[in-house]
Structures are given as structure tokens and as C-alpha cells.
Amino acid sequence: MAQTYDIFITYEPEDGSEYARILQQELGKNGYQVYMADGPFDRHIKRALESSEAVLALLTPAYLKQTAIPESRVQEDIETAIRWDKKIISIAANGKFDSLPPRAPHKLKKYVSQTTSRR
Where are the domains of the chain? Predict the structure, then answer.
């Protein structure tokens, strides 16, 4: 039987891994099965995303300042989650969320809330 997860965490490795690890640990302490995505979007990550109930997207400064959004792994995870009709939870890891990156697809704006979350 394949592993299933309650939450799939996606983040930019440049500045999101610390936040992701903390979230994974805290959610795990509360009984959630959590997958923390790392590395390129491959078959293993795709299976983990597919078997997850929700996607937690950490929107860090590195993600928000990107100009080449289509090449972002976080972006690919979010777009895949949209196609598979997954619940998407967005967290602004720096406590600020001014806007999505300028080249973010319009469909993404529908699914990613522009609310803030404090550490």
C-alpha cells in the first residue's frame, strides 16, 4: 500500500527549508502525516503530492521575487495541486505578503490567498 499524507509542503530551498522543517515537525507532533518536498519535481514527489490531502505552499521572499515563475518547483507543485483539485494553503513565511510575483499565472491568483501568516 502506498504511503498517504495529510499535508504536502512545498517551498523554495533557498530560504524556505528551515520554515518547512519546523512546520513538518509541529504538524507531525499533532498527528499529521507530512511530506516535505525537496529536490526536483520527479516521480517520487509527484506520487507524494498525489497521495496528499492538502498542499501547504510556503511563499518565501525567494519565491515572491522570482521573475521566471514557470521554472519554480513551488509553482509546478501548486499548478499540479490545482489540476488534481487539492486543497491549497498558502503561508507567507516572512510575515508579509504583498503580492504574487509579476509573472505568476492568473489562475494561480485564484487559488493562492493573499493573506499573511506570522511566525
Answer: 5-111
Going by C-alpha positions, the residue among 3, 109, 93, 107 that lies closest to residue 49 is 3
- Name the nearest CA neighbour of 45 among 60, 31, 32, 35: 35
Q: Which residues, including other chains, have CB under 8 Å from residue 74's CB and lie 6 or more apart? A: 10, 11, 12, 57, 58, 59, 63
Long-range contact pairs involving 16-19 (C-beta distance under 8 Å, separation at least 24): 16/58, 16/60, 16/62, 16/63, 16/93, 19/58, 19/60, 19/91, 19/93, 19/119
Q: How far apart are CA 56 and CA 111, in angstroms?
A: 12
Region 5-111: CATH code: 3.40.50.2300
In angstroms and rounded to an integer, the radius of gyration of the C-alpha atoms of the chain is: 13
pLDDT in tens, 58-104: 888 777 776 555 567 888 888 889 899 999 888 876 665 656 666 66
